[in-house]
Amino acid sequence: ILSLLAVICEEMVENCINCGGLYFFEFISCGAFLLSLLILCVYCTNAYEVFGKDKVGNVNIGVVSAIGVCFLVATIALGATSSESAAGKAASVCGFLASTAFLAESITDYFLRRKQHIDGHSDNPAHTPGATENQPLNQQS
């Protein structure tokens, strides 16, 4: 949502002194919004099960991290080259908020997946059967 707001605010900028930062911000914010929609579509369809939950999660962490870093760089470029218009300032604020949200999501996902990996390891890594596993299920007395 924040990347969409950044795109909308950026489109309202009427004049710019050095438009390179504005165009770069436009490209990154629009790309971030479209990639976010793509990630949402993957999670909402059966592609999530087809590709595998682990693979989708790993790709999600990488993509969201890259979006956050690129968004931060684009926002800094916009802030350095934009004029003092209200729409430009609003776009910069939305850009900083969006980059923070993307980076926070990727860090949170990373630590949650790491915790699941650590918690998912069993106490019996060699998979050797224990004493109760060798007994039949239906013992008749």
Give the terminus-to-terminus CA distance.
65 Å
Q: Count up the domains.
A: 1
Largest sheet: none
Assembly type of the shown chains? single chain
- Computed over alpha carbons, the radius of gyration is 23 Å
Strand content: under 5%
Please count the helical segments. Answer: 5
**Arithmetic mean of pLDDT:** 84
Count of β-strands: 0
Question: What is the general shape?
Answer: elongated
Structural class: mainly alpha
Structure description:
The chain has 141 residues and is mainly alpha-helical. It has helices at 2-11, 20-44, 47-51, 53-81, 86-120. The chain has one domain (2-119). Helix 1 runs antiparallel to helix 2 (20-44), helix 1 packs antiparallel against helix 5 and helix 2 packs antiparallel against helix 4. It is elongated. The model has no long low-confidence stretch (mean pLDDT 84).
List key phrases describing it:
141 residues, mainly alpha, 0% strand, elongated
Summarize the structure.
The chain has 141 residues and is mostly helical. It has helices at 2-11, 20-44, 47-51, 53-81, 86-120.
